[in-house]
């Protein structure tokens, strides 16, 4: 889902998906943080009645996950790719 949101003609969804999977495999804490984010939205937002809602519809949730992946990429020295992901949410 996130890969589709971040894709562009320059970088297709499948390439972004590989980067996302690499980041999540290297830092499983990102997955735990995403789960906490989903729980927080579900608990605090009365308009959200399903756990899938942030995953499917909430741009802020998507932006936060992209930020985490971009931050990981930046720390890995892959700065051009980190900046590319960041600009997809401007």
UniProtKB/TrEMBL annotation:
Serine acetyltransferase N-terminal domain boundaries: 1-66
GO cellular component, one term: cytoplasm
GO terms for biological process, alphabetical: cysteine biosynthetic process from serine
Matches recorded under InterPro entries: Ser_AcTrfase_N, Ser_AcTrfase_N_sf, Trimer_LpxA-like_sf
Annotated keywords: Acyltransferase, Transferase
Molecular function terms, GO-annotated: serine O-acetyltransferase activity
Keyword Transferase: yes
Cross-referenced Pfam families: SATase_N
Keyword Transferase among UniProt keywords: yes
PANTHER family: SERINE ACETYLTRANSFERASE
Name the UniProt record assigns to this protein: Serine acetyltransferase
């Amino acid at each position: 889902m996130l890969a589709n949101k971040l894709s562009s003609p320059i970088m297709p969804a499948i390439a972004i998906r590989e980067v996302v999977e690499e980041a999540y495999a290297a830092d499983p804490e990102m997955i735990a943080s995403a789960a906490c984010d989903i729980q927080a939205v579900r608990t605090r937002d009365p308009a959200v009645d399903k756990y899938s809602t942030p995953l499917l519809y909430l741009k802020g949730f998507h932006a936060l996950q992209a930020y985490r992946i971009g931050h990981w990429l930046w720390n890995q020295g892959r700065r051009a790719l980190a900046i590319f992901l960041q600009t997809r949410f401007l």
